[in-house]
Write a structure and sequence with these properties.
Elements (H helix, E strand, L loop, with lengths): L1 E6 L2 E8 L4 E5 L10 H7 L4 E6 L14 H15 L4 E6 L1 H12 L4 E7 L8 H17 L1 H8 L6 H6 L1 H11 L4 H13 L4 H6 L4 E6 L7 H4 L9 E6 L6 H4 L1 H18 L1
Parallel strand pairs: 3-4, 3-5, 5-6, 6-7, 7-8
Antiparallel strand pairs: 1-2, 2-4
Helix pairs in contact: 1-12, 2-3, 4-5, 4-8
């Protein structure tokens, strides 16, 4: 069911269902809560699943200035509203950056941390310039034309060819996100700090889900990070791009379930 809370004077919204230990699934750039629909349907049988629409997406009001830290506070506010003292927090792409910001400030609230096609490293100068170019394109052409050019590259080549309707549905859902939000997310991603220290210091298990054909967060970006946590669950998936939770959702469901169960056993 949809629920709301006070996010610093602004309305924050999230989807909540199921019972038991809490699992939080945070969407990435160009996504909303619905991107986790397969995982929500699977995990709700076992856990209390919370899936936010980050500020500026869905009915969650955008907040200024927007940053990974402010969105980490959004997650904290949602947990507080639910009366949840600990959770396994999983973030896809930009959602992983939010999860890391949350983990840095609230490590005692974590039972596990999941980086789903995400990285603790900051943007390189080359990546920042690419985002600046994207902002210029958003201002010039609007969201739909920009997203139709960008988002197909989030999928592995074979999936794009064989599952064109699903790719188009993903793009269509993304076009509901305002240009203002898409630009604010880019700016927040460019400004985020290096959080590899979080991985080195974290006391709970960390999940790394890596698609071999991921162009947004390539394999070689993440490999140096998988040995940083004391305990890590590492999954490198063939013929998967940046959106494994959609491309191989059944395998993703099982990986997440096994990770959450593992986190419970290590507490």
């Amino acid at each position: 069911m949809w629920k709301t809370f006070n996010n610093g004077g602004h309305e924050g919204t999230y989807w909540a269902e199921g019972e038991g230990k809490a699992v939080i699934l945070i969407h990435g750039y160009g996504e909303d809560y619905s991107v986790w629909e397969h995982q929500t349907a699977f995990l709700r049988v076992h856990y209390r699943v919370l899936v936010p629409d980050l500020p500026g997406t869905g009915k969650s009001a955008i907040t200024q200035p927007l940053s990974m830290d402010s969105m980490g506070e959004f997650i904290y506010g949602m947990m507080t509203a639910e009366g949840i003292s600990q959770a396994t927090v999983i973030g896809h792409s930009m959602g992983g950056y939010v999860a890391l910001a949350f983990a840095e400030k609230y490590p005692h609230l974590l039972e596990g941390l999941g980086l789903f096609s995400s990285t603790a490293k900051p943007d390189s100068e080359e990546k920042k310039e690419s985002r600046r170019k994207s902002i210029r394109m958003l201002n010039q052409y609007g969201a739909e034309q920009f997203l139709r050019q960008l988002l197909p590259n989030m999928f592995a080549a074979t999936f794009r060819i064989n599952q064109g309707a699903r790719v188009d549905n993903f793009i269509q859902q993304a076009t509901k996100i305002p240009v203002e939000t898409l630009i604010a997310y880019y700016e927040a991603m460019m400004e985020r700090p290096d959080r590899t220290a979080v991985l080195k210091e974290i006391k709970v298990p960390v999940l790394f889900f890596i698609g071999k054909e991921d162009q947004a967060v390539p394999l070689d970006n993440i490999l140096s990070q998988v040995t940083m946590p004391a305990v890590a669950s590492i999954h490198i998936i063939d013929q998967v791009g940046h959106t494994g939770h959609l491309e191989v959702y059944e395998e993703s469901n099982l990986i997440l379930y096994q990770f959450v169960e593992f986190c419970q056993r290590t507490i």
